[in-house]
Amino acid sequence: YLYDNRISRIEGLHTLLNLEVLWLQENSIKEVEGLENCKKIRALALSGNLIESVCGRLDSQTALEDLDLSANKIGSFRDIPYLDKLQSLRSISFANPHFGQNPVCHLCNYQTYTVYHLRRITKLDTMMITDEQRHLAEATFVKKKMYYNMRIKTLKRNTTNLLKEGLLFKQTKASEIGLQLTALLKSAKILERELHYLERVEKANTLAQLTAVKIPLGAINSQVETKLSEIKAVDELYEDMRSVVQSSSIHHISRFMVELQTGGNIRLEDGKSTDMWHKSCVDLVKSRFYASDFEKFGVKDIKVIKVTRIHNRFLRNRFED
């Protein structure tokens, strides 16, 4: 029992191989460490400390059954799935009436998210988990997963369709230019044969006759170069479009996954020019731009292409506190 001892770091316990109960409440601990050799701990109390994350820090505690992390600074759902690795864990507390809560407890869907991801626990925040609560948590989370999976599949389908349309446009345009290029090359071959013939026959080798062939041949060769440049431009346009579409798809899928993994507590919203907050952001950015500072770089003005608002409930709760 080492509670309320102003301990700032867990250390010196590596020889206690048979330690089963460890109370470290109301200290100043910031990191969960130094317990790698204590693999028989069944009950670990770390409430009332300064811990912000336990990701991967308790993986060695295979015998741990009861974990109290209440009244710390854990504010993200990302810690919760890591605790599912603790096969023996049956009771966990992020909130305790005697010590207080973690910021994570104030997030939307906190209980649903925790009960769904930690399926072996029977007690959460000192309260028994009923079968009804477990079924409700599973049903709610499955619905959310289905919703986001549907949106991701729709996005992928739309991306595929856009790429198909782009490829069809590229092939059609390239085919049109190819036909024109073929006709030009045929005409060029005819003129080249005629020029070759004139150069071999001395009597016909007059300046006027040669010029009459060379001028149109030069014009055709110039058109051939133009058509080859057009084919290259079409290829580059398609590749640019493909890159933009795929990047946009990956970006939006990442946004959906962030929303799902945070239980909807982090959302990204693209603004419209009609939104007051969009206009305020644009005005703010432009008011901070001074052309004289960028004159040497050749930058005379800026244009705001897109404004995205991030809804982060955890940060908002911290700000309000």
Automatic annotation (TrEMBL):
SUPFAM superfamilies: Outer arm dynein light chain 1 (SSF52075). Gene3D superfamilies: Ribonuclease Inhibitor. This is Protein phosphatase 1 regulatory subunit 7. It is found in: Cell projection, Cilium. InterPro entries: Cilia_flagella_integrity, Leu-rich_rpt, LRR_dom_sf. The keyword Isomerase does not apply. PROSITE patterns: LRR. The lineage of its organism: Eukaryota, Discoba, Euglenozoa, Euglenida, Spirocuta. Pfam families: LRR_9. Keywords: Cell projection, Cilium, Leucine-rich repeat, Repeat.
